[in-house]
Design goal:
The chain has 235 residues and is an all-alpha fold. Helices cover 76% and strands 0% of the residues. The protein is built from eleven helices and no strands.
């Protein structure tokens, strides 16, 4: 793995991702607080954070746990929410396919919305494989480390913060900050619109299935729009 490691690029990734910590820290605290509020033990809450390393999936899981949703619904909801990571991986694969499996496994673990948004811009501007991989690793390591610390703070704070504070508002703010720069074309705008409208329209569905259905509808709309765009683009 040393053959593909660049200390300079790694530190550049850490530096460039540092501003995102303003949103990551409160988000991690909210996830820790939410896990405790849902009835998880401190050890279970921290384990979920380290294993899943996905704020969106953790929020969904804790909300569904608090609602006593069936385990299968929780797993399916987390999978649907995390499908975006599959699309991120597909977008990054052409730039990283020459790495060995150890690098690919490590980078896939630290892949997040923020890391993707930062790294993909560098990948498009440079073909230096070692520097790109190290830069991505730097962003991921920083986010992972701060996320775990923030989650621990949330777990501890969950015992003393009054419920009236309603820190949940930080979650949508974090997603908006990451989402808006990525809405650059008609397909992404369509996916956003379909998912937003569907999750509100289907809110009355039991077991929080509105999120699952909205995600599936948005994915279907995105695939259909992408194929349509490609077809008409060749005519």
């Amino acid at each position: 793995m040393r053959a593909h490691f660049s200390r300079t690029a790694f530190l550049e990734g850490v530096r460039d991702m540092s501003p995102m910590l303003l949103g990551i820290v409160p988000f991690g605290i909210v996830c820790g607080v939410g896990a405790i509020a849902a009835g998880a033990s401190p050890i279970a809450a921290l384990a979920m954070s380290m294993i899943m390393f996905s704020g969106a999936a953790q929020i969904v899981a804790t909300q569904l746990l608090a609602a006593d949703a069936p385990f299968a619904v929780i797993v399916l909801s987390c999978l649907v929410v995390s499908l975006r990571l599959l699309m991120y991986s597909a977008a990054m694969a052409p730039y990283l396919r020459r790495l060995d499996y150890r690098w690919r496994n490590l980078l896939s673990y630290v892949l997040t919305d923020q890391a993707f948004a930062g790294a993909i811009q560098r990948f498009r501007a440079s073909d230096d494989l070692a520097a790109n991989a190290s830069y991505f690793l730097g962003t991921g390591v920083l986010l992972w480390s701060v996320w775990q610390v923030s989650t621990v703070v949330g777990i501890v704070a969950g015992q003393v913060i009054p419920a009236s504070w309603q820190l949940e508002f930080v979650v949508p703010l974090c997603f908006i900050a990451v989402l808006v720069p990525l809405l650059r074309d008609r397909v992404s705008l369509l996916v956003f619109a379909v998912s937003a409208i569907a999750v509100v329209a289907l809110d009355a569905m039991p077991l929080r299935l509105s999120m699952v259905c909205a995600g599936l509808l948005a994915i279907a709309a995105g695939v259909a729009a992408d194929k349509s765009t490609g077809r008409f683009g060749h005519e």
